Amino acid sequence: METPPAAPTIDYAHRVAMYDMDRTITRSGTYSGFLMHVAGRRQQWRLLLLPLVGLASLAYALRLIDRARLKAINLRLLVGRRFRRAEIVPLAESYADKVVARGLHPAALEQIAADRAAGYRLLLATASFHLYVDAIARRLGMDDVLATRLDEPDGADHVHARLAGDNCYGEAKFARIDEWLSANAITRDAAHIRAYSDHVSDHPMLRFADEAVATTPSRGLKKLAPTMGWSVVDWRGRK
Fold first, then answer.
1. Are 79 and 161 spatial neighbours (Cβ–Cβ below 8 Å)?
2. What is the pTM assigned to this prediction?
């Protein structure tokens, strides 16, 4: 594993380490895996709808729908238009167990542990759904989570297969981070911030950080990182 970033010498009031999740901490994306996990254990007949999932993905590739719409369509097809929270929570927990058991980069876990030991507040910021991300975050020991929200009416026992607010991705993710900082009374000049991501869409978060790390980066981020002076590490390959 590459040497972790050195701790800052200035005594900042706050230290924050911000992590993307899919393909940063995890070896692969988690969204499709979650849908398949739920469908396979809850209503297997929904797997017959996979050709429609493929058509939705094609519509996204052709830019006929955006990423948020694609996620909502796939959730509706493989989980349902609406579903009881109590029914999905155990499946989210079992999926989190599966991801943590076999789907994480050991080097990412080492870096999380190093940041925690150095006194950093750990923030997981991801476009995946709170529906299952919260369970993964608890297992990782994250202090705070920002993720894509679903429509969950107050006092209701069900969740709707539609997004509540923006998909927590790119600029929208950074807006959520900014809101989180304000809500926690963390001002930029009083904080030392580290950020880790694999994807170029997180350039707003990485640009904002004092120490930005491109982790096993996508092609676009691998090209961008050297021009921005960001560290590049490869977290693959460790058993």
1. yes
2. 0.92
Is residue 132 packed enough to be buried (19+ CB in 10 Å), middle (13-18) or exposed (0-12)?
Answer: buried
Beta pairing partners, 111? none
Domains of the chain: 14-233 (3.40.50.1000)
Question: Using an 8 Å Cβ cutoff, are 88 and 38 in contact?
Answer: yes
d(CA 232, CA 214): 5
Write out pLDDT tens, residues 167-215: 999 999 999 999 999 999 999 999 999 999 999 999 999 999 999 999 9
Pull the structure tokens for residue 171. 């600029």
